[in-house]
Design goal:
Helices cover 32% and strands 45% of the residues. The protein has helices at 14-22, 24-27, 111-143, and strands spanning 3-10, 34-39, 48-55, 58-70, 74-81, 84-94, 97-107. The protein has a single domain (3-143), classed as 2-Layer Sandwich (Alpha-D-Glucose-1,6-Bisphosphate, Chain A, domain 4), CATH 3.30.530. The radius of gyration is 15 Å and the shape is globular. A seven-stranded antiparallel beta sheet has the order 1-7-6-5-4-3-2.
């Protein structure tokens, strides 16, 4: 399964960073997707968020459902819809800061053509979006201390 991953240090306590990561309404400030609905309590098992996001000039829809949570260190969200996979957030205390490791594992549809597309552009696009998400998360968290 292809994946994109990255890390960033955020200058806020781990509990505050975790609360921002698990809340779909907070996520709208640092992800490039549009929140179209959510249910449940942020960070609880089976809570979900529905998203619309741009890919190659198209709008795709997806749903993320919390499948594992260990507050304040781990959040795993299963992604279904146009793209399937997992969003995995690992948070670690780093002195007064928080280290956030973020990984997106995804299934490439389309058999061999999908694998070629992933190699040619999709993998790079996913990595670029992940890196932008981490930078935006840091900026958002640190501006709301």
């Amino acid at each position: 399964m292809p994946k994109s991953e990255g890390s960033i240090i955020i200058n806020i306590p781990i509990e505050k960073a975790f609360d921002i990561v698990v809340d779909p309404e907070e996520m709208t400030h640092y992800v490039s997707s549009t929140l179209t609905g959510f249910g449940g309590k942020p960070g609880e098992l089976e809570s979900y968020a529905e998203w619309s996001y741009p890919v190659a000039g198209m709008k795709l829809n997806a749903k993320t459902t919390v499948s594992e949570v260990k507050k304040p260190n781990l959040l795993v969200q299963e992604m279904t819809g146009a793209m399937q996979g997992k969003w995995i957030w690992n948070l670690k205390q780093d002195g007064k800061n928080t280290k956030v490791d973020y990984c997106i594992e995804y299934i490439v549809p389309g058999g061999i053509l999908g694998k070629i597309a992933n190699t040619l552009f999709m993998g790079r696009m996913n990595q670029k979006n992940l890196d932008k998400t981490l930078q935006a998360l840091k900026a958002y968290c640190e501006s709301n201390i």
